[in-house]
Structure formats: C-alpha cells, structure tokens
Amino acid sequence: MRIRIVDAFTDRPFSGNPAGVLLLDSFPDDAWLQKVAAEVNLSETAFAHPLPAGGEANWALRWFTPTTEVDMCGHATLATAHVLHTTGTATGTVRFAARCGILITTAEADGTITMDFPTSSLTPIPVPEGLEKALGAEVVAVHDTADHIGDLLVELRDEATVRSLTPDFAALKDLSSRGVIATAPAEHPDNGYEFVSRGFFPAVGIDEDPVTGSAHTALAPYWSARFGREELTGFQGGARTGLVRTRLNGDRTLLNGHAVTVIEGDLRA
Predict the structure, then answer these.
(1) pLDDT, tens digit, for every residue of 149-192?
(2) Given 39, 44, 108, 194, which residue is catalytic?
(3) Is 208 a catalytic residue?
(4) What is the pLDDT of residues 57-71, one digit of tens each?
(5) What residues sit in the active site (predicted)?
(6) 67 and 175 inside one domain
C-alpha cells in the first residue's frame, strides 16, 4: 500500500507540519494503526477509507500520534485532502467522518484547501499552578478548550516571548488533557499575520507540534474577538513554521492552507 509524507500549512518542502497519510479500503485493527503511526513517528499519521455513497460523509478518517489516537487533527486532515486531490481520487468538496464529527474540505482554485471544523469554546480560568514555571514565562491569561480539543490556550506578553520558549515538557504533561497553546499578538502585523502561537502536547507524545490546525479552532475565536475581525492569519512554529488562514463562520471555523507531498513509497507490513 502507498504511504505519503505531506508537509501541511506550507507551499515548500521541509516546512510546515509533516503528516503521514495512508488511503485504505477499510480500517485494520487499532494495534496495527498505532504501530504504523509509531513507525512513521510524526506528530500524526492519518488513515482514511472511502464510505458508501449516499451517506453524510465520503471518507472515514482517523489520526494517530506515535503513542495514541486523537479526536481532532487539522494538519493531517489537510494532508489527507491534499493526497485525495493530487492523486485524482477526489475533486471539489470531501466530507470526512471523524471522532469529532463531520469535517469538510474544499479544494480552492489557488491550490489551497479550506477545512470546515467546529469552533472550540473558550472558558477563562485562573492560571494553573506550575504553568508559568513549566513554560518559563509570565502568563497574561488562560482559557480552557476542553469540549473539543482539550488544550489550555495561554496568552503570553508578546511574540518574542512565544518564540523564545523552552518549556519543561515533563511539567507541562499533567496540566491539560492534550496540550498547551502559547500565543501572543504579532509584533508587526504587516508581516502577513496577526498572531503567533506554538503548541506543546507531551500528554499525547508530541513535545512540540510545528503547525497545529486544530489549535486554530480556539485561536481564531480568541483573536477575532480581540481584533474585531472574522478573517485572520496565524503564524505558528519553532524550528518549523507555517501559516494558517482562519475565518469564523458561526459555530464553525474555516482553516485554509497549502500542502506539498515530499515522500511517497510502499508500506510493506
């Protein structure tokens, strides 16, 4: 079977967030899926198979980190849609049935893909004990996103603080069910983005995720409320970076970005 590595939220190889993608006839047992994801050893590997015609979705979709299955993943969904379109397997709009509900992707004329995801709610909470020490930075505000993605959205003082973080991952691991999203307004919005972020997810086996699509279902409403604009662009990453364009649409968040296939080969297992 064919396996592909796709860099998502970028139009250049070796940037953005890499994801493994396997298109299957059906899902094998969970243990095999987890072993493949551990072998690929990227933030997420996506597994998809076609569904019978006439249902609410065209494809079933699951995502695994090297250690566990996750409920929502943006970059690996983008990567999967990219593979479907570039191989001629699908055109136009694709509807995925996933653990978090129906996710819709649309191939745009400019070569990007727009994803329609549920918007995460944001509940302000006190700064958890140990969070500032684990991040190594003073925290401005904290919001919980437990209903959809299970992260803490943490605003820091400025872009430079976010970019310079060197967290204590062991200490972060127990502070949320999935991870911590550190964010701040862009220092220079004329650079093409309004906010920055980094995502740390040691609880699911990922110390840092380069460009986290699902995190932007919380980042988009947070910064849109601050700036009074429905459409924004976020810059995420440490060593690897990427851009996510966001637009609020009621209780849904639209995420848009490029993707590029960098490796394609045979999985013999």
Answers:
(1) 789 999 999 999 999 999 999 999 989 889 999 999 999 989 99
(2) 44
(3) no
(4) 999 999 999 999 999
(5) 44
(6) no
